[in-house]
Amino acid sequence: MVTEYVEGSTGAELNKREFKVIGTRPPRPDGIDKVTGRALFGADLTAPGMLHATILRSPHAHARIISIDTSAALAMSGVKAVVTSQDFVKQSSSGNQDTLDNCMARGKVLYDGHAVASVAATSVKVANAALKLIKVEYEVLPHETDVDGAMLDTAPVLHEGRKFRNIPEGNNANVSGYWEFGHGDLDAGFAKADIIIERSFKTAATHQGYIEPHATLATMGPDGRGEIWVCTQGHYMVRDLSAAFIGIETSQLRVTASEIGGGFGGKTTVYLEPVALALSKKAGRPVKMVMTREEVFRATGPTTSSSTDIKIGMTKDGRITAGQAKLRYQGGAYPNITAMLGAMTAFASYDLDAVQTLAWNVLTNRPKQAAYRAPGAPMAIYTVESVVDELCQKLGLDPLEVRLMNAAKKGTLSSYGPTFDEIGLVATLEAAKAHPHYTAPLGPNQGRGVSCGFWFNFAGNTSVSMNINEDGTVAVIEGNPDIGGSRASISMMAAEELGIPLEKVRTIVADTNSIGFNDVTDGSRVTFAVGLATIKAARAAIKNMCGRAAQVWGIDADAVDWVDGAAVPTGHNAGEFPPMTLAEIAADQAKTGGPIAGHHEVNVDGAGVSFGVHLVDVEVDPETGFTQIKRYTVFQDAGKAIHPDYVEGQMQGGAVQGIGWALNEEYIYGEDGKLQNAGFLDYRIPVASDLPMIDTVILEIPNPGHPYGVRGVGETGIVPPLAAVANGVSHAAGVRMFELPMSPPRILAAIDGAK
Amino acid sequence: MSKIHVSTTINGDAVEYLCEPSETLLDALRDHVGLTGVKEGCGSGDCGACSVELDGRLVCSCLVLAAEAEGRSVNTVEGMADGEKLHVLQQKLLDHAALQCGICTPGILVAAKALLEKNPDPTETEVRYWLAGNLCRCTGYDKIIRAVMDAAAEMRGA
Amino acid sequence: MRFESPDTIEQAVELLNTCDGISRVLAGGTDVLVQLRLALVEPELIVDIKHIAGMRDITAEDGGFRIGAAVSGAEMGEHVELVALWPGVVEAMELIGSTQVQGRATLAGNLCNASPAADSVPAMVVANAVVTISGPNGARECPVADIVTGPGKTSLGKGEIITSIYLPARVNNSGDAYLRFIPRTEMDIAVSSAGVSLTIDSDGVVTHACVSLGAVAPTVLVVDDAAKAIIGTKLDDDAIATLQAACSAACNPIDDKRGTVEFRTKTAGVMAKRAALIAYSRAGGSK
User: Where in the sequence is the domain holding A726, given as residue range(s)?
Assistant: First the structure.
């Protein structure tokens, strides 16, 4: 591991710091609750007088709603409220209106599973029976679920007038977004190449696949005040959208985040929450809603599917002379910017003189896409890394050497605009090259795949408070749902900065009315941004505590330092008084001026980008096309690993999600536009027996934007597996694969086709 | 239609509940007995989050009718720890950081306990196949498998 | 919906026979409960047969084993003598679903669910398994091969219940095997599958064989040409290739989310080839 901090980075005061807590592996604070079954997730709460609500969903992929008659349902015994789109407030922003329309269809249903109405009743059974009494008259319209199909002039149009960028001539109304990135002279670049490969790829839509279905419990009193309990990645987002959708002020709605049973981006928007709130408002009783697994697949997530054309030129010795990618993504029935993120990330690993990426977002009759771990990047980088591998193969070059030769580094003008600061790609590639995995012998029908991966990492709005308790313990209050161990890492950073033992710190995720605003837990932002705010909040508390010590000692506050958890006099007072510990200052706080707290609110900037390199050995059965993962190693730059177990966990989890994407996961639509595999039986996520151990190597190239050097680590891990596995399969099977997933029928057809 | 009265034993305690004929054991445990540690991830036996032991046999409680528990014995994750003392498997999952979101954890624990009662010295492959019906989307399974293997070793030594 | 758990088979038959609406027999419940959950069926009556004497027993009989209709896959796998006699049938049963599903799922349930992709059925067919059925007109016996008449359809009459499945005795030097293709290593439904049972003589020459295929037609296929291809051989490469080709030729599958016609056709032959080699080895043959 690289543990030295790089000289000259802006975290200079901490560059040589020896950490006491950071980098250790203590048990997680929420661990006991989670191994004993005590932890409360979205569906685990009940309330007195609670009703249960379920949703009527469209059986059609695309249809105009002529009428909805809910009278028979309302008349049924046990039914307390029914809502449709009529019960929500029109939104001024088109993005919010889209989210609302996705929660409850307005005018048209746009995909199989689109919500049309909801019933709250005394039981799920009664609610479901009432749904059958709702009469919806539809005018069925032609539908399209394929990205390329939806771009044809003959395609049915989902929405008119929704193009939100300068869309080039020749695109139909389903193209809602278009983006261009890059620099340099492409023609000149390709002219310098000794070999140019042009390929087209397709990737299927995949679901985030969290094991906990969406669940919420909402209550709204006659006084117009509401409460929501929900499993979400962002309860402030839930508050803002739900309040806006039923037309109340945000201060009147308090949202509490439950423990969250996985999200991976899929719980960064609302589905049930505004509906439950609207039903509760009408019924005057608490309303609980829990999705079935089928509903999760039909109506939430998934990610985008893609169709891509890619062209890369290379010299005989492996220098990439130019690269171009044309990325077409469909993200379902409403506009989104995932294609833009794909275009930004496609060539991010490379230092190129000439690069261009073009991206289109296309509307189709599928569920509104939700973010999925490094949204847009895996499918873009898959295509680039596949073609780079094919170039290496054709030229007889080592794939890691070629990547090293072309790797982006500090000072590289990135393909999406910014110039990189300190980044870890070269170190990560070097680590992979030096690892025994890279040179281990392969058996028959086996192949080794390599791929780079990249994610920007997010930062954003963050609030943290910290209370110094009289007994010398510390309560940290943050507002980002803990999705993978962040309460552990936040507590560790607080303990480190305050200089106290970890067990003296307890971190909680507060509700929306208890602390300032926080952006959603997404984009690998929490350990970075909340960690930064925690450190700054600790510094504010330390300043206060130094002041208290100065007051007791009768010296200038500036003449007090904080060392190892205690105030110490400095300068000419040095040594004059014994250090005053946090516990001592805390015990006397009432006498020295009252409660001591620290807080920090900031829109954080400076999230350092993260690169990863994955190595995989696969074995392909030439008679069945079955692929087995034999060995897998993840190399990733974490900046600074606060809790290495959870960094490894992110790397392993991301890798396995990517393996699933590469091999078997896909949304399968029939000719009728209906989803055919809305369950874990046929939406095939990896199971324990599909996998070997996932080895990890953490690199630490500090992020200058964080006091301890932290980079987000959650997203990057899902990016490389698609191409790494595809490249491994291509070597093992002796035939190139251009479509994901590489399910056995596809691989076998490719093998047989090549004979 | 009338409800069915069920007398059963849950985590060693005599328990009675009323259920509808169509309710599952999972529904009964969560909604009537208050054992919300038993999780529902799919309702179709594909994810294992609702795993319990029924007369010592590992099952998905979503695939058992509540009425079938009459006169039988059910063990859930809530019954694993002995007061303040965690079961070795619970401790090992914590030690190995083998959970992230924790929603699959109760099912994994119950399933792993059933494995080690049957096979105290499983190979990695045996652990992986035994737990194939317990989906985890966070961890990639690596740390879970290590934790179960480590727990098995410790339980054999004890 | 009514839930009944009678103590005798007569009571069970009476309940089912007098129910006017839809009824379901509950053994392991691993199919029935999924159907209830998805509201694919809303039965008026559920009859749990697990409290009926003999339903949960594996009994030695005439050199074979009688397996009660409520015996779970896990219980079969733990029965050492049964595994020794019909390893292919037991492994077919044990492939169904997860460990959790194994704790409940039954041979009889897998048969009555009548899925073309049922794992245990091709294995039972090559084993010449016989089911015992109780009904309003008393008990009768029926070969497993004659129970399933189409996807989701059986030859069982109203009020009839399978009470047990008999796996017969077998001569020395016999072996059986079952293999299926699935996209993952576990938790999937068979995309194609094959069961093989065979007997060899002291020279290792196959004297009897039966080959079946699953998931490649509306019901299990028995491929006589495949059996003929290996009878009289020591499973040399030519014989195996002929068996494989005969199996693929017999396939009549559908294209669906689980596999294409081409894929099912090809892999069914591959599964049969590999199952035949395992069965041969189990019979004591060496290659």
Answer: 1-12+421-457+608-755
